[in-house]
Amino acid sequence: MTGGRRSRVRGAAPVVGLVALVVVLAACTDDTPNALDPQGDDAKVLADTWWYLFAVATAVFVIVAGLIGVALGRRRGGADESDGPTTIEPARTTARRDHAVIAVGGVAVPAVILAITGVIAVGVTAARLEEGPDPLVVHVTGRDWFWDVSYPESGVVTANEIHVPVGRQVRVELDSADVIHSFWVPQLAGKVDLIPGQTNTLRFTADAPGTYRGQCAEYCGIQHAHMAFHVVAQTPEDFAAWLEARRSPPPAPPPGSPEARGREAFLGLSCAGCHRIAGTTADGEVGPDLSDVGSRSFLGAGTLPNTPANLADWMRDAQAIKPGSNMPPIDMTDEQVASVVAYLESLP
Amino acid sequence: MTTIDERDDRPGSPGEVLDPQLEADLEEAFSEPPGIIGFITTVDHKRVGMRYIVTAFVFFFIAGIEALVMRTQLAQPEAEVVGASAYNSLFTMHGTTMIFLFNTPVLAGFANYLLPLQLGARDMAFPRLNAFSYWVFLGSGVFMYSSFLFGAVPDGGWFAYVPLTGSTYSPGLALDFWALGVIFVGISTTVGAINFIVTIFKQRAPGMTANRMPIFVWSVLAMAVMVIFAVPAVTLSAALLEADRLGGTGFFVPEAGGSTLLYQHLFWFWGHPEVYILLLPAVGMMSTIIPVFARRRLAGYVWVVSALVGIAFISFGVWVHHMFATGMPPMAMALFSAVSLVVVLPSGIQFFAWIATMWDGHIRWSTPMLFSVGFLIIFLIGGLTGAMVAVLPFDTQVTDSYFIVAHFHYVLNGAVVFPIFGALYFWLPKMTGRMLSERLGKASFWTMAIGFNLTFFPMHVLGLMGMPRRVYTYQDGYGWGTLNLAVTIGGFLFGLGTLLTVIAIWRSRRHGAPAGPDPWGAATLEWSTTSPPPDWNFAATPVVTSRDPMWEPVLEEAVSGDDDATAMLGPEGAEARRMVVTTGVAAVPETSSPIPDESYAPFVAGVGLTVLFAGLLVWTGVVAVIGVVVVLAAIVRWTWRTEEAG
Predict the structure, then answer these.
(1) Could you give the C-alpha distances from B206 to B100, B217, B403, in angstroms and in order?
(2) Which A residues in the span 329-348 are in contact with B, Cβ-Cβ below 8 Å?
(3) Which of B3, B9, B164, B301 to mutate to probe the A interface, most A CBs <10 Å?
(4) Which terminus of chain B has fewer Cβ atoms in its 10 Å neighbourhood, N or C?
(5) A187-202: per-residue pLDDT in tens?
């Protein structure tokens, strides 16, 4: 009879799966926003919590699946033959044993495991609430389908790319201008929703310089899939320089240059109605702030790498790249496209 | 000690030939008009139950096709199989269909079919209400899917969070189809639950005390009580959403002083109990099937019953764990985190009851048992990841990621659909009189089991690797491509496995071996009558003396007495179209009640409701009023006839 063997095979399959999980996680690419490759204090605590949960769950799985396998395979002789006497009525001792098995295996042991887990959960929750002495405050507003970013202390405004210094706690204040979004940078912190009508808070401290991908995690409409952002963690010096460069508006390009023609075109076309560029008359609020778009790594909220060619494609027909987004196709001559690209890419 | 073999020699054994005169009388009392008229007017719980199951499976395959289209789109990065808009409609309709139009009604179908038979009764307490609840289910399903004809398919996700689903961000009819459809189908679920509860309390065979009720009956009772308390919350959330959309009320609009989180509280106050509303009947099926194939009584009956009832209560205290990322006060959430861990305990009890049952059983590896073992392993994984996501801080990493998609498919697909497939192989022979192919059954099981795990296990990893749910595409370079391809292959394999069962069912119509009354040597009363059962289920009411009446040496049948309470017990007094009513706890015969005749009223009332909801959808008073008038007329006719018959 193969029943016992089968059950052991079945029990083994998910164990193989668990091993595969570890292997796959180890084989992530450098760009994978892997929650188990934490680069910040909050994500580190949560990854530790995961490894505890994973260890306990694996142990419980192996034990319970093993018991199921043994229970199924114990009596080889009787299986598959529907004739032959079979016990229906458990003996009195069996009934007592049933009670003991259920009371210990089904109640007592799980209660202990769950109690320990509960204490850990509350402890971690309390620890995550602690705010450091001098956090950097960043305000993030979710919009369909990009992220407004501002630094209240310095008045710097940007979008879709959040620069932070390593080693200093960051307090992200989150709200939404339209529907519910969720702020998730798996390598830095657990996610927190952006909900219209309330301001939520998320805290983390980045450990190492690097660029960490985040993405909206709450379904927010047609372009939920293209609502990513990046957190750029920098050394305190680099961060200070980055912030300083944005405190004052970017200088106007020299007259007659392609950049100057681009600026003129930008302000004259419909662009300025939706986008803001510090120090210009462009003060639209429908699309992301472009004051430092030239220095950002991505376009369209993480949709495309920021290259002049991609920017040109994006301006001509963003609907082909991010259908349903609020960026309409712009009717521009090739010359206009080239100069506006030159202008935008020149922004710090 | 009793053995299965001794059992077959007892008097009153299954399939006993009836006295021809009695049979003729019963035939006459229970005859139904043939053809389409009989189809529309029937109130027979068996016909209604099978109809529920067939209709629900149609929706199952529709939802499955939706899932496979999604998986094709996600098989590789930046694929262009379907666009963003279509994808968003697909996942919305997949979830909505699976929850509202497959899982809930298919279990209601099994409960409809099995409850009276397991209770030793001739029909449900309210047979016409039963027919009505089916027509409402069908009407609401057609209503929601008619959105495809209007090009206004709901696309707000199956939990339709505001403000995305308000009129500002979702203009048009799509979300009206969803919200009204949810209210509509809730009527079916609620009247069905009322019917289950009354049937369980009033229609049990003499001697079937609460302490002897079959475990599936207990699970349906727990489910039905949960429905009564939970469904009003989702009805309210959908109704307020419609009020906001149509009437501009602003319940969920922050600028108008409303609250977006209010919607989430209302929705999940139903939404989490709903998980157990689906799960409980499924585990009840497992607690019925496992002892049959282990060939010993269920270990720890009282433990298992307590676990079912415990879940019914505790699951009302965990809804906030769906909202751990909403920024509520952390220590308030910690309370819900703790309760969410406690709700694991009743499942632990059931696991060890099943293990103890199998421990000294003699396992028969028939297809229903294979699906049961598959269920055990899958539910174990789903339960463990459930305990993980109950841990508040950890949940903030995985909620709304593919990890959570993996978790709830292990529970709602694995731990509910596997029992349902096991139940098909187990109970279809009772319903049709023909066995299903074991060969196809086993092939179907293994294909489904491998496909299932290949589909959903890698999703855990994808979630931890940062892939959010509900994205219609993803970019290359994040390491998500390979696993997504594996998931897609698994999805098709799973779909293939389900088709093998369809083939097995199709083939059994011609080639299935005759089942006989009791092909499995099972324990409950449905196996004491022929397969398929006669219209009257039981000529004489069985008398129950234990929890496993068919495993007693003798299954006694009641004889008629001369007072009202016992006149109907039979066989000689049983020929009328009446059924026995017993007391709620002790199941002592109390009186008898007429079984209503077949009637157009439930169908007409269902059609009237559909017209009413169509009127609300297009916001046209005249149409809505016509619907109301039709419903009222049908109800008047309905109650009128019942009194005449009484």
Answers:
(1) 35, 16, 49
(2) none
(3) B164
(4) C
(5) 999 999 999 999 999 9
User: What residues have CB less than 8 Å from A348, skipping those under 6 apart?
Assistant: A245, A246, A250, A292, A294, A295
Beta strands in B470-614 (DSSP E): 542-543, 556-557, 578-582, 589-594
Best A25, A28, A44, A102 residue to mutate vs chain B (most B CBs within 10 Å): A102
CA distance A271 to chain B (A): 23
CA distances from B312 to B43, B189, B321, B544 (A): 30, 16, 17, 27
Per the DSSP assignment, residues forming a β-bridge with A158 are A149
Task: Residue window 81-120, chain A: list those with CB within 8 Å of chain B.
Answer: 82-83, 85-90, 94-95, 97-99, 101-102, 105-107, 110-111, 114, 117-118, 120
Name chain A contacts of B164, Cβ cutoff 8 Å: 179-180, 219-221
**Predicted pLDDT of residue B10:** 40
Question: How far, in Å, CA of B263 to CA of B234, rounded?
Answer: 9
Question: B465 and chain A: CB distance < 8 Å anywhere?
Answer: yes
What is the radius of gyration, based on Cα positions, of chain A? 28
**Residue A86 in contact with residue B7, Cβ under 8 Å?**
no
Please answer yes or no on whether B260 and A197 come within 8 Å at the CB atom: yes
Q: Looking at the DSSP assignment, which residues form a beta bridge with residue A173?
A: A139, A201
Min Cα distance B216 → chain A (Å) is 19
User: Does A80 touch chain B if contact means CB atoms closer than 8 Å?
Assistant: yes
Contact A208, A166 (CB under 8 A): yes
**Does residue B640 surpass a pLDDT of 80?**
no
Query: Residue A281 carries which DSSP code?
Result: S
Q: What is the DSSP letter of B287?
A: H
Contact check, Cβ <8 Å, A46/B397: yes
| Interacting residues of A172 by C-beta distance below 8 A, sequence separation 6+ | A138, A139, A140, A162, A183, A192, A201, A202, A203, A204
Nearest CB partner across the interface for A3, out of B85, B337, B365: B365
What mean pLDDT is predicted for residues B563-584?
A: 84
Beta-bridged to residue A305, according to DSSP, are A298
How many residues can be counted in chain A?
348
Q: What is the mean pLDDT of residues A300-316?
A: 95
Distance of alpha carbon B497 from its chain centroid, rounded?
A: 21
Out of B5, B169, B397, closest to residue A221 by CB = B169
Residue of A nearest to B549 (CA): A88
Distance of CA B601 to the CA centre of its chain: 25
Tell me the per-residue pLDDT of A83-102, one tens digit each, with 9 for 90 and over: 433 555 556 678 889 999 99
How far apart are alpha carbons A157 and A150 in whole angstroms? 4
pLDDT score for A299: 96
B356 with A97: Cβ contact below 8 A: yes
Chain A residues with CB inside 8 Å of B548's CB? 88
CA A323/CA A225 separation, integer angstroms: 11
The answer to whether residues B627 and B620 touch, using CB atoms and an 8 Å cutoff, is: no
pLDDT one-digit tens code per residue, A129-179:
888 889 999 999 999 999 999 999 999 999 999 999 999 999 999 999 999
Q: For all residues of chain B together, what is the average pLDDT?
A: 93
CA pair distance B68, B73, nearest whole angstrom: 9
List B residues 281-300 in contact with A (Cβ-Cβ < 8 A).
295-297, 299-300
| Dihedral-angle region of residue B257 (phi above 0 means left; psi in -120 to 50 means alpha; beta otherwise) | left
CA atoms lying within 13 Å on the CB side of residue B354: 30
Give me the numbers of helices (H) and strands (E) for chain B, helices first please.
21, 4
Contact: B479, A31; criterion CB under 8 Å: yes
**Residue B641 tokens, joined:** 């006839």
d(CA A251, CA A292): 12
Binary contact (B478, A46; C-beta < 8 A)? no
Interface predicted TM-score of the whole assembly (ipTM), two decimals: 0.93
